[in-house]
Design goal:
Rossmann fold, 3-stranded antiparallel beta sheet, 10 strands
Length: 229
Amino acid sequence: MDLKQFENTSALDMSLSAEVSERLKNAIEKQGKASLILSGGRTPMGFFHQLSQQVLDWEKVTVTLADERWVDNAHKDSNEKLVRENLLINEAHCAQFLSLKNSAETAIDGETELEAALSEYGKFTVVILGMGDDGHTASLFPGATALASGLDLHSGRSCVAVMPTAAPHERMSMTLPRLLNTECLIIHISGENKQKVLDQAQAGTDATELPIRSVLQQSQVPVTVYWAS
């Protein structure tokens, strides 16, 4: 794990934006397209705004999410709404967006359609994950009945429906093997509490206790942690 520490979130946002935009540009130059997988929440808001101002061929970039609440994309809790309002603006207004939420009534019912949609994408360019105080990442929550399926590296699955034990809304989450199928994997966190969780995650090995361990302790793709105090 490569840990990049910053004195404040503004410095982190600028550095992360520069890193991600450079990787997207390189992928477009080499492959004619790029993909960016994001996480919701308050932490990435400043980064989204910084990245939205980067000049690149955004129409060749597909943006999607590591996880989504099973709510309408106009709902206040929708990660898609967050991304559309804070990233898909300015220079990035013409990026393509792949929604994890489809017309199915439940996330479980929506799995098959989303699996088909995700199968059209090979290795991602950049995946950026967050981390909760409970050690969850994407919607791979400790205690969730779908956690084992979501962490199974041999499942052959790209997504899994999740009902958190202590958070609202049914969710759709990309699985661990799908998230690891990327050129670049970044964990974006801020604050002393997240630093403590990160230290705790590194000190043990039980991924069912702290699912972020499954990301930190795998050997498939290098992990860079961006952390600001």
